[in-house]
Amino acid sequence: MAVIIICSTNLCCTSICFRIHYESKLYATKSDGVPAGQNHGTWRFSASGSVVKWRKHKKKHVGACGFVMRSPNEVVTMSRKPQNGMSPPEVIENLKLISDPDRAFDYFKSVADMPTLVHTTESCNYMLEMLGVQGKVDDMAAVFDLMQKQIINRNLATYLTIFKALGLRGGIRQAPLALETMWKAGFVLNAYSYNGLIHLLLKSGFCREGLQVYRRMISERIKPSLKTYSALMVALGKRRDIETVISLLREMESLGLRPNVYTFTICIRVLGRAGKIDEACRILQRMDDEGCGPDVVTYTVLIDALCNAGKLDDAKLLFQKMKSSSQKPDRVTYITLMDRFSDAGDLDCVEELWDEMEADGHAADVITFTILVDALCKAGKVDDAFAQLDIMRKRGITPNLHTHNSLIGGLLRADRVDEAVDLFSDFPSLGVEPTAYTYVLFIDYYGKLGLPCKALETFESMKTRGIVPNIIACNASLYSLAEAGRLQEAKNVFSGLRNYGIAPDCITYNMMMKCYSKAGRVDEAVKLLSEMTESGLLPDVLVLNSLIDALYKADRADEAWGMYQTMKDIKLAPTVVTYNTLLAGLGKEGRVAEALELFASMCKNRCHPNTITYNTVLDCLCKHDEVNLALKMLYDMRLLGCSPDVVTYNTVIYGLMQENRVDDALLMFHQMRKLLFADCVTLCTLLPGVVGAGRMEDAFKIIKVFVSQVKYYITRSFWEDLISGILVDADLNSALSFADSLIVDGICQDDSILIPLFKVLPKHKRALEAYNLIVKAKNCGIRVTLEAYYPLIEGLLNLHLSEMAWNLIGEMKKSGCALDVFTYNLLLDDLGKSGKVSELLGLYEEMQARGCKPIEITHNIVISGLVRSNCLDDAVDLYYDLVSGDFSPTPFTYGPLIDGLAKSGRLDEAKQLFDEMSHYGCEPNCVLYNILINGFGKAGHTEIACEFFKKMVKQGIRPDLKSYSILIDCLCMVGKVDDAWDYFQEMKLKGLDPDLVCYNLMINGFGKSGRVKEALSVFHQMQTRRINPDLYTYNSLILHLGIAGMMEEAGKLYGELLHKGLEPNVFTYNALIRGYGISGNPERAYAIYQSMMAGGCSPNLGTFAQLPN
User: Measuring CA to CA, how many Å separate 1091 from each of 316, 386, 638, 1084?
Assistant: First the structure.
């Protein structure tokens, strides 16, 4: 087969392109490859263009592209070359027609040799790709060299194609590593290539790699362009790498490149953003010194940096210098200054700049008007801000979204939320479409106001309106939820971020971790931290501080220290908050040495301790017997310029008082007063010990001065805490005397001083003194409140001084002091225990008539009182009246009722009441089962009692010691001693240790059954367990030994009880008399009787019944 490729392009002389295939016939096709035309002998030509016959016109009449294919595997170059009239796209098209890479490369080189035709990036990249597929690296190097010589742009595709051919993976980011491989393969980069490659890397965001390529370029002694230096500086400036930026400036100068105004401006911008204002100003001065005058942009950049650093006055001075120079401020300069002064709330400066701007010929536009509106709103002049809208419209300027957002922000800051909502509602009529930021204003307002529901509702309404939340809106919502501890809603917002294609940022994670920490779910917070780091976000120090604190609060100290190590691993410098948290943890654990070591490391790490740090360490020292070291640290603290606060002194005073160093504590107190005012904590720390040391006069002077200074800031809790502390550190008389002096001298006008005393005095049987003190307080003009009355009334009632307590109640009512439900409960309980049913029911009705609603305990007290007063039916009736309403009975309700019914022999009713408990949602407990077991057992129904015991166990209620005691007693009563013994043994197997009562029951049970030896065995077992027998034990054994005729053993036990100091009673003597009488020893029986009478023990009827006739 023979093929001739004929081209119709400007390269050839004809206007048609043929592919002729010789098989049985010759065919011609159009250049798009579709057969067409008519037959002409053995030729078939396209109908378009000139028709030629090869044999007739021969080669000179055919415009061929220069290639003839004689066989499927052979293409020969034709003598004609590409003509100068071709365009670059046609060159690429021709290359694509050639499948053989060698021939394509020949064609590529022939085009390159043409003086008027230059290859493009596209044709070179195509050639590189074709050669790369065939592994022809040397030819690729030649193409790359051609691109460098002819200054053909090397783009991203150029390098990626070369990397691919060289087997390099990882994209353009691998350029620093790839350069060595390229050099070995013959790709030698010139300055233009290096500059271009650096720009490609920086454009792709690979700043570090761009810098590495730059370093190689320098090492090869190739000088980068000024543009390359500028691009590197800009990229490094965005990363806040100031040192590298400045070093680049020095390097470019060392290479003979003189920085221009653009380069200097970049340096100023970088230094300004990093807060290096002095260095930025020095660059400006250098520009003046070197004759490179700053332009408008330079001045504006430095002014912006000064403003951001809070140096507004310096920014204003520079602005004035700029105005006096040839570089006059433009609109951007004015906008920059006005915006920053607006943020600072300096409305006067904004208005002054406004006037200068208009004087300089810069007409106000919507941006400048918005800045002015915002400044007025921040100054609280919201109405003046609204007035600017009319001025804008008169000038033909339409307020935009930002203008209205500023107004909404101003209204919300002024708490005019309704007006803000109205303005927001007017947005459609104003032609303004709200954005996420508009909603953020409301979300933030509601969140900071403590209205998380309203904030969340606003967030949801934004989504309903079709506005996709941004990260700021989500973070604002999370802030309100985190503050309120609303974890579930916060999780919903957080998980919803992905639905909107929003990636959480550091603030988002911080808010979520705060939520988890508040909820005590530290594990989830730590898991979230891992997710954060895996997402490529480095946590900030605030996040890690929060987690360290949460872990310590969760008693997970090791993990907290692990988090601290993580902070150091990621090169995040711990802050003073970090150290304070760790020091507080070490202090609580008593690890004093480690705390001091960590404290010392702070200064080494250039983190200066603050007052909180010192207070934390001082607290650790004072609580662990290192007060002298604490005093030294307090001295050093002042030398290092850290001022102690009241907490510092309170901590040291506490340490001194703990060591009873009262004089030193007083000295420290007076030293503090020279600098600071004492607070309530100071006095509560100092005075109890001072009073306890008997220095009442010093304590009185201190409290007198303190009250005169902070009279209106003293709370009720202060007096209560102070007297409570004195009661601990001093004796009761001293506390009473000190309180009495405070009341009589009018220093304390608050009845809270009485409360701690009233809680203690009745317990020491000094209720009368408490009563007198309350009378004295009232005479001194102190209004006694229920809070003070209550502990005294409770104490009086506990001492059975009911009359005195009821007198106080009468005084309370006369003085208009209303009783609360707890006071009524005390009184109702007293009346119930006294059996005063009429008064009980009368007070019960009175409290309800006075609007004091009884609580659950109140009803239970009344029911119990009625049962105790033998008004069982009234108690049952009251119970049914209550449950017919909204009363929910508890086991405390049923206990007295069931017990009363059981003891009255109404066992069926007791059981019925027990069974209906579950109907009212009340489950029985062990106490109720004990009542039923006792009731049925004592009535002789031991089988039923045992059934209740088994039912209790089956329901998962663990029997207590009393359960077993009751059952053993009931079984012994009916003579079922073996069953009783089985339960006794079971009790021990269940881990319950029998007490004296249990042993006595078993001893008595065996004795009554005539099994005296077993009774004695239990007696010895009891003593082995170190349970001392009481008189009942001895009486029982003596009685049953006497009945069994074992008077010798009985006599020994009688001697033993006397030896132990137990005093025999009538039952002891009766048992001995009976024993001696049964054993036929009447003389001894009468001797015991005479001994009994001589000892002052009166006989009873049983005594005379036992004496022998």
Answer: 115, 110, 83, 10
